[in-house]
């Protein structure tokens, strides 16, 4: 149909667990690394066979959160994926569980999918699960109703969701909801649908699927999409005064200047992500540093200086 598809998958650990029996006393992190290293072979071979039978080539990309932290590394990954798509090759992306340690792990593959969708400027993100979407109660209850449309002004749906997760995964429906809302805010149409339903992707395309759809906001620029997911990656924090805060939230396009900076913390260099807070410590947004902390220390509070965060690399939380 001419659609370019990027596939984000899990399953390496599950394949490895099936293949290899490990002693109970084995360190849990090491267990997962061993299973992932072994299972990744079966996982990618399975996709290669399934898609080769349909006439498609695939490529494997293994990533960690670190790959999304650095803007240069991020763009290299983006260029690779876009290059594969231009050649008609389907990128199959999975977390590199063999090297990821706990603090650098994605919440689950819904977070990885959301990051990837923003990175490649996807118009649609489909999160497949084992139920039809988000319900007003536990899906197995007969009185629970499927929520088919979520708009910008829809009520908070998190109260409807039960905290549960699979034996192999780390996330659950709440992560799907949070990632779907964030992606929709960036201008990406999102569906949460039942991956066990035959022909579900075709049903989504022809708008006949029983699923939950999230209405997309106006599309954000690519750097702002990168920053929107940067809350866990910031290297420093900047506290700004009330004047700077008003300027950032005004209708005029405004960069953050050193004259508006009160204090800063962290150890950051040019290109690192900074978190912006007001004088009360309230989170305002994220931005990319135009220079490092030494230069900022020299310019803080001064007028007629180069912006510490340019508007093009500024993401404000109130846009969510």
Automatic annotation (TrEMBL):
It comes from the Bacteria. Pfam families: AA_kinase, PUA. Keywords: Amino-acid biosynthesis, ATP-binding, Cytoplasm, Kinase, Nucleotide-binding, Proline biosynthesis, Transferase. GO terms for molecular function: ATP binding; glutamate 5-kinase activity; RNA binding. One of its GO terms (biological process) is amino acid biosynthetic process. Its EC number is 2.7.2.11. Residues 236-309 form the PUA domain. InterPro entries: AceGlu_kinase-like_sf, Asp/Glu/Uridylate_kinase, G5K_ProB, Glu/AcGlu_kinase, Glu_5kinase, Glu_5kinase/COase_Synthase, PUA, PUA-like_sf. One of its GO terms (cellular component) is cytosol. PANTHER family: GLUTAMATE 5-KINASE, ISOPENTENYL PHOSPHATE KINASE. This is Glutamate 5-kinase. It comes from Cecembia lonarensis (strain CCUG 58316 / KCTC 22772 / LW9).
